[in-house]
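Now for a specimen:

…
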Amino acid sequence: MDRTIYFDNGSTSWPKAPGVAKAMAELLENGAFNINRGNYAGAYEIEGIVLDTRDKLSRLFGGKDSRAVIFTPGVTYSLNYFIKDMLKNGDHVLVTGLEHNAVMRPLEQMRGQGVSYDIVPVDEEGNLDPDVLEGMVKPETRAVIVTHASNVCGTVVPVQEIGEICRKKNLYFAVDTAQSAGTIPVDMGECGIDFLAFTGHKGLLGPQGIGGFLISERLNGQMQPLIAGGTGSQSDSLKMPENLPDKYESGTMNLPGIIGLHAALEYLEKTGIDVIHKKKMALAEHFLNQVKEIPGVRIAGRKDIKNRVAVVSLDFLTADNAVAAFELEQEYGIMTRVGLHCAPVAHKSLRTFPQGTVRFAFGAENTMKEIDVCVEGIKRIAG
């Protein structure tokens, strides 16, 4: 297809940040040496870049110590580490009505081990009332897990207010930043976050397959590594090292992914995430202002750009959503994501279950002209 318009940045960003592909290719072509294993100059050079990547991520998320930045394949793996290690028989957890299956499926598995959870309701715009959450805390509640921004409707969850509740109630606070990292600021210290899960391939503009988590000192004292194995350190012992990040980083690291993420973070630091976010929100506002006047579609969630990221879902009232997405691609070259977006809980909250929605997620490389082409397509399909 000669003409394509990419509106699926909620799944993965594209194009990636300038320099990402080049940095990864240079590593693979010129010396993909293993760090913590190879005792030679090339390995030490790569290790320096890995350390700098940790530093950049720690600054971005308000971490206290860059050694507490742990690399994993992504948010899903990170959340599993927290849920499956921290929670024990008799523990209770609170989650929001916007959660992704990266939270809900591990919790469902843990129900078989005596863990329970309650879903804090949100309204049809995805807004959560912190007072309602506080009122649902039980004596056995151990943790609160929330998505920072919905992957379905884009609504932002009030993590600072929730963090204050967690401090007051002595609860562990875990935040999924899949849709917010690199888009809107979040500070672990200010928000009282104990566990922050991130992915590199969405708002951070890096490659797929690299992400991780940041962990607070008090939570680290309670957690044990879910995966054990070689770290290249303390090899005389059959026990896992207690020092960070080795405690949680067994096996060979995804060095091409980390190198690509490093290049993306350098671009974000140079450009400014506020500048990128402002452009994306201008595109979202232009889109919302037009589609809310189309009678054949319903916007799932907020109809303005307050308290949201640039993710917009539409429910076609006069056409099947899957057919609408297919026609947008076939006739206009517009790439979206249709369905339940691995978030049935969110769709139930937004009253779009079981039909799902067509999701449009904008990136800074999109244009107003592309928005206009898309709106014309939606008008024709919805008419």
User: Anything to note?
Assistant: Residues 35 and 48 are 9 Å apart (CA to CA). The first strand starts at residue 5 and ends at 6. The radius of gyration is 21 Å.
